Amino acid sequence: MNITTEDNFLNIDATHPWANQFSILRYADSSTSSIPHGFFRNWLDEDISNANYGNFFIGRASGCGVGSIVKYDSNQQSLRMGRFISGGLRLKFLLNGQHESDSISMCMFSIFGNGFRNLPPPQYTDTILKNDIWIGDEVLFLGGSTIENGCVIGARAVVPPNFKSEPYGVYVGSPARLVKFRFSEKIRELLLNLSWWDMPMDWIKDNNESFLVKLQKIDEGNAIELLTDLVRKRKYI
Predict the structure, then answer these.
(1) Largest CB tally within 10 Å, which of 109, 160, 168, 218?
(2) How far apart are CA 53 and CA 36, in angstroms?
(3) Is the pTM of this model over 0.85?
């Protein structure tokens, strides 16, 4: 498995309290990310952590819960997780597993050997989770989906193939559907402009008080003022 992460990655912390459940990635800015043991699987449900079997990128401060898996069928497939992703228990990312349905049969004849052949299975595009995403327990992702910044994916949702979300949307159900936005259009625009997940951890710590404000509970004008001030501060870094 080709696993890549941020440039400021330091090491795997084998002494972390969660090391029995996760590989804990440590970064120079004091953040960590977590990959559950047994996360990388093939279609035989074998662990492929050490195989050359696909691509996985994880950003800082991200992780999936215990029991989560990502299934690869070949080295063509890729899962990319951005920064500050909070994933629940038993998530499933099925990056492919398609059969060709335009030919006479969908059977994978080649598995029988003896000269049998079939068309190569179709491939989904990369599965991409951007930044600051909260994923509830037991969500199923089919390949080729893109989850935008700031989204919530409700527990047990089924994210269909080639799905494209809206930033800061809340999605539930099977198939997943937009039920609301977390904030007004103006607030969402400012948050995307802020892109706080790209800032150093020290900057986030210095402005931590602003992250404790419930934007939905205050006057929108005050929320706009707060975010505008953070955007201004961002420009001086």
Answers:
(1) 168
(2) 18
(3) yes
